[in-house]
Design goal:
- The complex is a heterodimer.
- Chain A contains no helices and eleven strands.
- Chain A is mainly beta.
- In chain B, 0% of the residues lie in helices and 50% in strands.
- Chain B has no helices and eleven strands.
- In chain B, strand 5 and strand 6 form a beta hairpin.
- Chain B starts with a strand and ends with a strand.
- Chains A and B meet through strand 5 and strand 10 of A and strand 5 and strand 10 of B.
């Protein structure tokens, strides 16, 4: 059974750093693109970027380029999303998700989400 | 980026009704479109892929149609568990983009 299990909720202060994770199981982790998505409170879904763990090819949506870093560790089958300096506007639910096939493929499986709250 | 315009943004309906949600793409995307259901506090769930293919395990009350720039999701005989928010997703061109969502509420 394909599963994506994300790390737990985080409460941080502005300016702090953060790295959240998404562990894949039940499939070949290196053979599928993994994406990170943001859902701000009461709002819709936005794709932030994607990574292909097979060769670490990473693509960012322009509005998120330079704001976050996406990485992966194939030994522990885990993808990461990190911030070096959080802002209050980063408060949101973050989902990881698998692309079903190549880069031109729909999302099929989702993590359960990680709620990030940034407040002074 | 390809813009996805979803309508309506909200919809009130009763159990047993049939409803249709529309997504329009700013340029042609073939049939590279999916539909997702999201319930409060939960991750989205895939309903339809490739515009009209029903995800395994999803009720046949859900159906998708369209190609190019106009797509629809139809839900027949609404059940209580169908009241949720629905999103379309185009994956023809990176970055993948979502419609704004349709909140389906009980009348």
């Amino acid at each position: 059974e394909v599963q994506l299990v994300q790390s737990g909720a985080e409460v941080k202060k502005p300016g702090e750093s953060l790295k959240i994770s998404c562990k894949g199981s039940g499939y070949s982790f290196t053979s599928y693109w993994i994406g990170w998505l943001r859902q701000m409170p009461g709002k819709g879904l936005e794709l932030m970027g994607i990574i292909y763990p097979g060769d670490f090819d990473t693509k960012y949506t322009p509005s998120f380029e330079g704001q976050v870093t996406i990485s992966a560790d194939t030994i522990i089958k885990t993808a990461f999303l990190q911030w070096s300096s959080l802002k209050a506007s980063d408060t949101a639910m973050y989902y990881c998700a698998r692309l079903d096939g190549g880069i031109i493929a729909p999302i099929d499986y989702w993590g359960q989400g990680t709620l990030v709250t940034v407040s002074s | 980026d390809i813009q996805m315009t979803q309508s309506p943004s909200s919809l009130s309906a009763s159990t047993g009704d049939r409803v249709t949600i529309t997504c329009r793409a700013s340029q042609g995307i073939g049939d590279d479109l999916g539909w997702y259901q999201q319930k409060p506090g939960k991750a989205p769930k895939r309903l339809i892929y490739a515009a009209s293919n029903l995800q395994s395990g999803v009720s046949s009350r859900f159906s998708g149609r369209g190609s190019g720039t106009e797509f629809t999701l139809t839900i027949n005989s609404l059940q209580p568990e169908d009241f949720a928010t629905y999103y379309c997703l185009q994956y023809n061109t990176y970055p993948h983009t979502f419609g704004q969502g349709t909140s389906l509420e009980i009348k």
